[in-house]
Every structure is written in C-alpha cells, then in structure tokens.
Amino acid sequence: MDFYNPNEKIRLIRKQLGINQSLLEDVNMTRAFISMMESGKRRISRRSSELLARKFNSIAKEMSININLDDEYFYRVPEEDARFYCENELSKDKISHEELNEIIEVAKTYQLRDILINIYKANGERYFAEADYMNAFTNFSNSLGKCKEINENSLQPYIYNAMGVCKIRRNEDEEAVFYFSQALWYAKEQENDLYFIKASYNLALGYSKIKEYEKCLEVIENNIVGKDIDEESEDLLKARILKANTYLRIGKKEEVLREYLIIINTLKETDIDTLSMIYNNIAEYHYKNEQFEESLKYIDRAQKLRSRESISIVLDTKGKIFLKQGLYNESIMILELAVSFAEEYKQFAVLFEIYKDLIKVYEFINDLERIKEAAQMLLDTLDKNNIDKGRTYALYKLIEISTTEGNIEESLRLLHKLKPMLISE
C-alpha cells in the first residue's frame, strides 16, 4: 500500500479525475496558490486541505464518482496516512487474517509500533477464537514485544494472561505458569484489579495442572477468596470450584462435598454450565470412593445440562464408571464419543486423558489392535496440532504393542522417535 506526500496527492487525484488546476480555484484559493502547493513550494494547511477535499469531492460527485476525501486528507503526511489507514481497518467489525497481515506490513514500513501492538493483539484474539492457540500465542508474543519496545505497560497484564491461556489450552502447563505469574506481577504493579483476579485464578489453575496443589490453594486463598469480592462474582465462583476440585485431587473428602454444596447454593438459575460442571465433579468424587450408582446419578444430571462443546469431560467420567462396573462395551462406546467431541472442539486439555482411559479399557479386554489404533490416532492428533503433552505416552503404547507382536524393526523405529523426547524431559 502506497501513501503520498500532500503535494503528490493533489497531482495524483487531479490526473485521476482528468482535470486541470483551474477547476480547483476558489475565492479563498487561487490557481497560483494551488500550483505552489502542488509543486511542494507551499505547505498545505488544515484549512487548505479542507477546501481541496471539498472541491475534489464535489467535482468527483458530478462525474458520479465517490472518492469521499476527509477534510485533513491533503494535510496528512505519509506516516499519518498510514496510521489513519491502519486505525480505520482495525475498527472494522470483521477482518480476516490476510487483511490483518497487510496492515502489519504497513505498520512495519512506517514504524508504527503502537499500532503494531493492537494489530498483533487483534490477530491473536482472532486465532484464539478459532482455537488456533499456537498462532494466537505467536501474535500475542509479538504484541508483547512491541509493548516492551515503547514501554507500554498497561496492556501487559492482559497479554501475558492471554499467552498463558494459549499455553494451558495446548497442555503446556509449566510454561503457562510462567506467563500467568508475569501477568499477576504486572497487574499488581499497575493496581489492575481485574487482571489481578484473572491472572490469580489462571495461575492457580496452572499450579493445579502441574500438581502443585498447595501452591494452587495458597493463590486462591490469598488472592481471591481472601479479597473483598462480590459473593456473586464469576471469578469467585470459578476459584471456589477450583478449590473444591483441588481438595478432590488431594483426597480431602469432607472439604470436597462442603465446598460443592456452598457453590450450588450460590448459583443462579441461569448458571447451567457451571451446575453441570459441579454435578460432574461430585460424580468424580463418588467415583473415587467407588460409589458408582451415586456417581452415575450425578453424571446423568451433568450430561443433561452440558453443552455439546464441553460434553467430552462428562462422557469421560461416565466411561470410567462403566469400566469400574465391568461394562466394557458401554465404556468403549461412551469414551469413543468423548474423543470425537474433544477433537471436534479442540479440547486438548481433556483429550489426552480420555484417550488414556479408552486405552485402559482396551487393555482390560486385551484388544491389542484397538490399543494400537487408539495410540496412533492420539499421536496423529497431537502431531497435527503441534502438541507435545501425550506424545511420549502414545509412543510408549505403540512400542509396547510392536514389542508384544515381535516387530523389532517397528519397535526400534518408534524408540528412535521417542529418544529425543525422553532426553528433553
């Protein structure tokens, strides 16, 4: 995209319309003055720009052409035009990655670093909405880099938090903890209460995922539950749910049910998804205590409320219950359905766990072919989406099968693929 100096714009548009300077004359603007502006001998003022824009718009309209020049068009230098263009494009409701990349190139050419912050951020948000978390992370990272260059600190809590969410959606939980910690630090520095709470919750979630449960509970207690937050706040609700889930994972049985009951009593009638999640977690609690009938009662309640996009975690719990009851065919059917939903909606955080549960059922019935098929499908999905977590497990299962089958060549091939992953760990 080309942008022109003010005097060049007069000449360019005049030639495009096929008119001479005399047609631009006005009581407040002589032909000689126009000639001097066009040749670059006189600077174009805001008032002159306004007169020129109106004159050109009027002439173009008579030709049934709409050029729609704004009053400051002839006053702006190329850098200002580039900024004007970028800001207008960014304000559009719908804008594609291709269009955003074009704007990025313009902003780079004219070194509009503050504009680049917002373009990369917008591109990251669009990729995130499309569940393309790798490209989303890259764009948020570029946005952060520009923030650092010009000491723009106000956006850094948001961007660090967004980068952390991208990592956690890709099961890169230890890296996520770093970005959430940074988001929390910047939010605290800037007294940004909104992102202090958001980053605190996400940091606690990250700690939970890497099994640092005491740190998870500490962040929840100190940064969220212990703060003066509205009892009906969604952030407080999410923190309480995570707290209850953490109690479940560390085996604090009495605290688990108490927390879940507190949460249920504070829910609004419209909190269908949250209620479904709680029912699923209570089902998980009863499952761990081998109270399978009670577990199924709550899982059925959860399944009735859960949306299609997030049903996979409920189905996973149900599949595990059926396995414990010895209902292998039913367990396989439910877990295969859970896999399909998790893959369709790119729920990578639960997909690996579902595959592990499905393979466990196949192991119970000693179906080597289906174990191999499931492990290969998991590996293919992880490779396709550039996700590391789960690859080691999938390769290990494939090596187990090939070794059992006496296929030494295949085992060696898979071991060669597994070796760099083990070294990096």
TrEMBL record:
Domain HTH cro/C1-type stretches: 10-63
One Gene Ontology MF term: DNA binding
Family annotation (Pfam families): HTH_3
Gene3D superfamilies: lambda repressor-like DNA-binding domains, Tetratricopeptide repeat domain
Entry protein name: HTH cro/C1-type domain-containing protein
Coiled coil segments of this chain: none
